[in-house]
Specification:
heterodimer; A: alpha+beta; two-stranded parallel sheet; two-stranded antiparallel sheet; globular; B: about 160 residues; mainly alpha; 7 helices; rod-shaped
């Protein structure tokens, strides 16, 4: 999460918008975002409906056995098509901004406007 | 005279045994090795900041390896030259504690953290990303269509939450 904030200028200059999604409520997101100095968008999916739709539900993995999202990253193009995704096999291992940038460049080259 | 020399002999024996134990050297590899194991156990939160040492805990495993080598060296000293080095009791204790820390670290990193659902039904590359509308941090409703229409691409990062 922090690494995406650090490389946000680079991502945004290429036209990539960063959006984080979790089960946390909007006010928690607002506070955490302010506290940690994040400027990208945080979306709230408290009942994990979207998380379920993407089959990313990690049952009972949250506090008090709450259902939460497993870490996952998607790159969606302007037509809404998924261009790249990362489903980690280890909770501690997340996608790096570099991977997103590389995937984006590959797609740019593969499909010239 | 006789009793005097006896007393003298007794004293000199006491002195020799005392000086022998005092001369036993500090078995530093045991302690330093244990410190390395401690560092290996507690430093992952630090190394998790850097992708190279986060994705695979090279740094932690290296610390454990150095710690392990030093602990073994310390044990060899303690049991191989018990007259020279200390650590016959403390050595095995530190070594077992170090081994337990290594075992627990490996268990968490290579087993617990890998208990991730398979997500077989997750949308794939080339498919349309399922549409959604969710509240942002200010309570404003935002849809995926809003996001994709506004930029060349959107990086969706699903995360576990701050709790």
């Amino acid at each position: 999460m922090r690494s995406f904030q650090q490389r946000l200028p680079e991502l945004e200059s290429r036209g990539i918008q960063v959006v984080a999604i979790s089960v946390d409520a909007p006010d928690i997101n607002r506070r955490q975002r302010q506290k940690l100095g994040y400027t990208y968008t945080f979306l709230s999916d408290p009942r994990a409906e979207v998380i379920r739709r993407y089959d990313l539900l990690h049952r009972g993995a949250g506090p008090k056995g709450a259902d939460i999202a497993r870490p996952a990253e998607f790159l969606v193009d302007s037509s809404g098509t998924i261009r790249w995704l990362n489903l980690t096999e280890n909770i501690a291992v997340r996608a790096r901004p570099q991977q997103v940038l590389e995937a984006f460049e590959r797609e740019e080259q593969a499909t010239p406007q | 005279m006789l009793s005097n020399s006896d007393a003298g002999g007794g004293i000199s024996i006491t002195i020799t045994t005392m000086s022998a134990s005092a001369k036993k050297s500090w078995n530093w590899p045991l302690w330093i090795g244990f410190l390395f194991a401690l560092a290996g156990f507690f430093s992952y939160t630090f190394f998790a900041q850097f992708p190279i040492t986060r994705d695979f805990p090279w740094a932690n495993l290296l610390l454990f390896a150095v710690g392990g080598i030093l602990l073994v060296l310390g044990l060899f000293r303690a049991f191989g030259k018990p007259r020279v080095y200390r650590g016959k009791i403390l050595g095995p204790i530190l070594a077992i504690l170090g081994l337990l820390m290594f075992g627990f670290f490996s268990y968490v990193f290579f087993y617990v953290l890998r208990q991730v659902p398979p997500s077989i039904g997750a949308p794939r590359v080339g498919e349309k990303a399922p549409e959604f509308t969710l509240s942002n941090q200010d309570g404003k409703e935002i849809s995926l269509r809003d996001l994709t229409s506004r930029s060349k691409a959107v990086a969706l990062i699903f995360y576990r939450g701050f709790w």
